[in-house]
Amino acid sequence: MSEHQGTWWIWKVFWILLIITGVEVVLGIIKPEILLVQFLGTSILNFIFIVLTLVKAAYIVQIFMHVKYEKKALRYALYLPTLILIPYLLFILLSEGSYLFS
Amino acid sequence: MASTADTSKEEHHWGGGSRPLGARYGKLMMWFFLLSDALTFSGFLTAYGLMRFKYENTWPIAENVFTHFPGLEGDQPLLYVALMTFILIMSSVTMVLAVNAGEKMNRKAVTNWMLLTIIGGFIFVGSQAWEWYHFISGDTGAVESNRQEIVHVYNEDGERLSFSQVIHGMEEGHASNHGESFAKEDVLFALKQNNALYLQEPGKAGKMYSHEESVALLDKGDVVQGANMIRNEYGRKQFANFFFFITGFHGFHVFSGVMINFVIFYNILLGTYEKRGHYRMIEKVGLYWHFVDLVWVFVFTFFYLV
User: Fold this and answer.
1) Would you call A26 an interface residue with chain B, using a CB distance cutoff of 8 Å?
2) Most CB within 10 Å of its CB: which of A68, B180, B198, B234?
3) DSSP string of B136-199?
4) Minimal Cβ distance to B50: which of A7, A73, A97
């Protein structure tokens, strides 16, 4: 973090998080017709929500938790378990969950 | 060759001589804890997703459940939870500012930003208590059939009615029951009187019952107001259970975060870190605090938006 001067970079992330949350809330209240089209089992709107959430999560982890400025080894030690295990858990539930209907 | 001691620095890997991760012990341990906690929360959220997928058609729609805002009447979907999100993001920002000030050894700034972070945390926990209170005390009331299905009362215009409106009439009654409890007999009597009223399941494809079926359903069933672990007026029992469990577990994290932040704040006031020569403790609790914010970002999306 030492390469940063002042606190502008903190407020920049604050505004990004605030604007993304604002967009999510507005979309959640309006729910535009065109975004309710079904795609891969859910609406496009839900995909937009998930992508925006992941963007917010990336900013929090990378900047606020300053993982971006850690050593490569530590970055991998943190990212690999989460990015392998959580998608795996989702995959298992999505594929095995279909048995709930049979 | 067993006892040849080599003192060159490269050989001391197991004694901590080299630093492959470039992070101090305390920070690493905090990260390992957060990693396991992240997996715990993803377990909860995927389990929630699975149950929601199973009861896809009758799962309550969050914006029909969380509609209150302090001081405002009527439907205010998402507004309150958006405010809560803003409060948590804001307190995350004050925490980064505290860590930043700590690196510069600016004691006064650390004190102020830490205090603001604690206040933000308290406001968030209080907001959650307020939301729980409204969730538990209930809104419109519902009918539970003898097969444990939850159904709501609607009028001929497809408007959802509260028990208050069913019994006192549309003009006299409130859109929300406002803590008034209603007996099954009174609701049944009012339902029989008005042929336009019918019952319908919640969710995007909930089953609709005719007036006659509705009367029979309530006759054999019961009325439900509010929410607990056994039944709730919003819909599936699992909906309330997951709400209590996930937001409760997160709220407990926020609460313990506030407590830890307070201990750190007290130590800042005592000058402990000034004596120690560094404010690295702030960085460690900061990581925990941001993690709490991170989890909320996901809870917000999967519980309230999707």
Assistant:
1) no
2) B234
3) HH-SS-EEE-TTS-EEEEE-TTS-EE-HHHHHHHHHHS-SS-TT----HHHHHHHHHH-TT-EE
4) A97
